[in-house]
Amino acid sequence: MIDFSGRIALVTGAGRGLGLAYAAQLAARGATVVVQDTGTGCDGNGVDATIAEAAAARLVASGGKAIAEPRPIATRTECHDLVARIIKEHGHLDMLIHNAGWVGYQAIDDLDPDFHDRMVRLGIDTPLWLAQAAWPFMRENRFGRILLTTSDRAIYPAYAQGGLVSYAAAKMGAIGIVNILSHEGQAHGIAVNAISPVAKTRMWGVEGDPDELLPDAVAPGALYLVSPECLASGWILRAANGQFVATRAQDASSVSYPRDLAAINAATPEDVAACWSRIAIDAPEQRRDPVSSAAAAFVGMAVLGECPLWSESTGNLLWVDTEGRTLNRFDPVTGRNATTGMPDAVGMIAEHKDGTLLAALGCDLAIVGDDGALRRYATAPHGGPDYRLNDGRLDDQGRLWIGLMSKDLQAGSGILYRLDPDGTWHVMDDGFRLINGLDWSPDRRTLYVTDSRIPVIHAYDYDPAAGSIGNRRPFATFGPDDGFPDGLLVDDEGAIWSTLFDAGAIQRIEPNGAFGRRVQLPVSRPTSCCFSADRKTLYITTARLGLADKELERQPLAGSLLAVGLAEPTAACQGLD
Asked: For the whole model, what pTM was predicted?
């Protein structure tokens, strides 16, 4: 559970509507909330100190900690004074949510300077001065969360309304502040984001509790963005009706800014006119296509994320950081990721039908208890300090098929083992360089094994009763633009989903070996993949291993657990016994 105990939060415009929803949920989770609200009317004029006082009293009556702050924040001095009072009283300020604002309409012909100045002052100047005042304290504590407010009415031309030019200017200005401050705060533990909320409040002319588009349905997104668990920065979170999607402007990966935009060349205005349909591609984001764009299920920094496995016994996604030596349990319902340290490199994990969890640790195999305790029960017969076990999978009979690799990836040094339930090791094939993904066809008559560094996916004839293989042949080979095939799985149609390390993609390979659709990813080094229980989500582990600092800057999700939504459920053969 995300807990704000001991944290101090300043929420502006917190007397009503969205601000009150944020404040109430923060207080309910232990935060001390400074409820700032001058009681301004919907037109941006007037003051009413009782608004902040009543809201704070309501939070206190519910068992929370809250302080009313009705004084204005229209100038730099007023903003700095407010933050100084909070620091003097509480010693620190951890979270700043600037929610205060108002909606006013004036067409461009009638735009009044005072109207415009008040709108811009509250939407741009106030959050900037509040952030400036809080910044030294957040930097000193190496922790700070700042959340500004923007609007879809400004971001998306499709939702623009006449008369909102000043409002839109202020809301777009907030995005510019987020872009720069997220960059400046990165080295100091300060995350800066924006929220674009849709909720029926008095700005919609709604007094009291609305019948839809509730402020409380937006608040969870705001709370996450100001929580210690949130490491994301520089994002705009769109929030409405309990649904959330984060966005930000990102350039194409092939751009070398500013000299090469990887774009259309044009030397004259006539050239631009002739190419306009290719320069300005007017196509909406496809969020519910058969394969949607990848997003972070969990933002992490795994050195070498590997072996995602859906646990039928717990309903969690298990995965490992091989080089980081951790076992991870990701709960897709809560979004929490629990980590257990391991004593050695974790090559793979596998789960029996009874829930028994196996892990490869160096050259050993161990049973992992629910409390993380390990019981080693087998050691690879050809292991040693220069070797370790790598990828593996259980077959239907409970036999473990697993590869042994040399740590320096010597050609021909890899071995494919079968470990029977009675503890007997069998060498099934050898001469590999780096065994990775293994899985079976739906009819269990073919075993696929990846040798990443050749690079090739082999196919074997497979006898499930005897556990024997034969007739090895190349099933799929890869070119220089395909990177290295890493983990794989087979779906119910018999197609292989192969992760392409260094090519930043998942490649679907049809049962006849033809390359089908390719899912591009926001990282260059995906490592393995698996389906969720309902087969509607493809989870993908990724790596930071070997990436230079500049590459990591371009790939902020490297080392994270990714998720790709699938419109049609795709069954996978998990190879469980």
From this structure: 0.54
